[in-house]
């Protein structure tokens, strides 16, 4: 009786294992992408919400929320949103797609969420911080209050 001395895996067995590993890694990468987008959304929410503290620091030193700024003009020199003492400038520059509004007595800001094509996160001087739709922000009657 002959015994087989060649022990090991066949080519078919190796291909099956590689295919299974490929399928599992594809599933993991898909769920990691979703987790990354949620983490980016959390960062946007934190940045916009932290503007409230920076705005109060600015208001405490100037008794105003600064000169009127609307829409994409967050980078307007001399506005509350470019103040370095309160770190408002740092928050604005770190937030992609941010929109800012102030009329001197109130303010609001929003930035798009990564995981949503139509959603944004908004915070304002009334203490509101919530998800909004972009169309609500653009057509709001009171641009210094989150719609």
Features:
3 helices, 4 strands, rod-shaped, alpha+beta, 147 residues, four-stranded antiparallel β-sheet
Architecture overview:
The chain contains 3 helices and 4 strands. Strand 2 and strand 3 form a beta hairpin. Strands 1-2-3-4 form a 4-stranded antiparallel β-sheet. The termini are far apart. With 147 residues, it is of the alpha+beta class. Helix 1 (11-62) runs antiparallel to helix 2. The chain has one domain (12-139). The chain has helices spanning 11-62, 88-94, 134-139, and strands at residues 99-102, 107-112, 119-124, 129-133.
Describe what is shown at a glance:
The protein is of the alpha+beta class.
The protein's oligomeric status is single chain
Low-confidence stretches: none
Proportion of residues in extended strands: 5-15%
SSE sequence, one letter per element: HHEEEEH
User: How many discrete structural domains?
Assistant: 1
Overall shape: rod-shaped
Figure out the total of helices.
Answer: 3
- The structure class reads alpha+beta
Physical arrangement of strands within the biggest beta sheet: 1-2-3-4
Major β-sheet profile: 4 strands, antiparallel
Mean pLDDT: 83
Distance between the termini: 85 Å
Helix content: 40-55%
Gyration radius from CA atoms, angstroms: 25 Å
Report the count of strand segments. Answer: 4
